[in-house]
Amino acid sequence: MKMVSVSEALSLISKHAQDLPAVKLPLRESLGYFLAEDIHAPISIPPFRQSAMDGYAIRFGTAESYEVVGESKAGDFREFGMEGAEAVRILTGARVPDLADTVVVQENICREGSKIRIQRMPKPFANVRPIGEQVKQGDRIAKKGTKVNAHLLGFLAGFGLEEVLVINKPKITVIVTGNELQTAGSPLRPGGVYECNGIAMEATLAEAGFPVASLGQVEDEQFATTKAIAKALEADVLLISGGISTGDYDFVKTALEANGVAEIFYQVNQKPGRPLWFGRKGKTLVFALPGNPAAMAVCLQVYVMPLLRKISAGGDFSFDLEKGILFGDLDNACGKGRFLCASEESGMLRLLGQQACNTLGGLAQANALVYVEESVSQLGFGDKVQFLRINRW
Ligand SMILES: Nc1nc2c(c(=O)[nH]1)N[C@H]1C(S)=C(S)[C@@H](COP(=O)(O)OP(=O)(O)OC[C@H]3O[C@@H](n4cnc5c(N)ncnc54)[C@H](O)[C@@H]3O)O[C@H]1N2
Ligand code: MOO
């Protein structure tokens, strides 16, 4: 299969980005999920006529002096006759007795024993929130496709909702490959490197609200790689790091083939991240990401994150490019799609000095990736550029 361009790769991925099924979740577990249906108010808010202030509930226009015959505080439910010039002491949030229509704030009365005298008469119905003032029963209170944020979650809780129907999140498995990989805690042996791709992937996904279900490590060995992939294929999305180039010990491609994962594309005309592989077996979408840490991270941002957002949110597959102005210049004689670490401020993009593909150092400092299309060979100071925001959380 021939090498694809960045836009061909995105378009092929988008064709396989089908929404995950809807699932009912306890409201408190729904943070970060997307609603799979509109939600209608099961009750009105407020659900009863409610006092907005501390004061006295009266029947408007009855008198200027009232006899206080009782009290209604938040949570109380008691009716009062409210005959003639009778008032009820009332507190903020309390139910206004059925026969009262107005609440006089306590600052505007003079109380002597059980009597009050109104010094400044409010307007009729003042300080009484009618039933359904904010939301009427049956109103749409949240739209399908909305992301559940903390405030929406709290708003829905105010209606007594216990469960919501949301689009499920993918089960994600990560496998990192390489004999050289070492875990922190022991001195580096000659030829070894500390594992960072799996850790960075897990953190990037967690930041975006996608927990990794399993993170495993495998040696550069055909049988072990095939076995690890076979086990991981029950995930919705499998991410593999390393071993996808053409070296003698790069076994990922053959192990994917041995497992019957159909290749959708291999190799993208881009830098970094050329040896990216994408395929599918049944419901499982597989990305074999290049092992160089910056190549892995760029491919994750550019291809994997849009896919995850689409399948767990409904809506469209989107590559969220923004437009800015280049503060500097760059040469792209190689004719590849380029992703360059940059610092963006007020729409101005400065390319960072650190662009090496074998370290995450550049990405750690950047807040943007400038995207230069294959056909663009040179850009100068003040030219328009496209960029992708990163590290935004
Ligand atoms: N003859 C060719 N050689 C290479 C090509 C090519 O087209 N022809 N492509 C180069 C490009 S571009 C990249 S990117 C790499 C990708 O190779 P692999 O995906 O097979 O990755 P590895 O060889 O396993 O590792 C590359 C590099 O990254 C380090 N690495 C890998 N995994 C991790 C990890 N989890 N944590 C930290 N560091 C990791 C690994 O030690 C290597 O240094 O191939 C080029 N070669
Ligand atoms: O993708 Mo590679 O990172 O260009 O070395």
From TrEMBL:
EC numbers on record: 2.10.1.1
Cited InterPro entries: MoaB/Mog-like_dom_sf, MoaB/Mog_dom, MoCF_biosynth_CS, MoeA-like, MoeA_C_domain_IV_sf, MoeA_linker/N, MoeA_linker/N_sf
Keyword presence, Amino-acid biosynthesis: no
Domain MoaB/Mog per the UniProt entry, residue ranges: 173-310
Cofactor(s) annotated in UniProt: Mg(2+)
Family annotation (PROSITE patterns): MOCF_BIOSYNTHESIS_2
Reactions it catalyzes: adenylyl-molybdopterin + molybdate = Mo-molybdopterin + AMP + H(+)
Keywords assigned by UniProt, alphabetized: Magnesium, Metal-binding, Molybdenum, Molybdenum cofactor biosynthesis, Transferase
Pathway: Cofactor biosynthesis; molybdopterin biosynthesis
Keyword flag Transferase: yes
Function as written in the Swiss-Prot or TrEMBL entry: Catalyzes the insertion of molybdate into adenylated molybdopterin with the concomitant release of AMP.
Record NCBIfam families: Glp_gephyrin, molyb_syn
UniProt similarity note: Belongs to the MoeA family.
UniProt protein name: Molybdopterin molybdenumtransferase
Origin species: Algoriphagus oliviformis
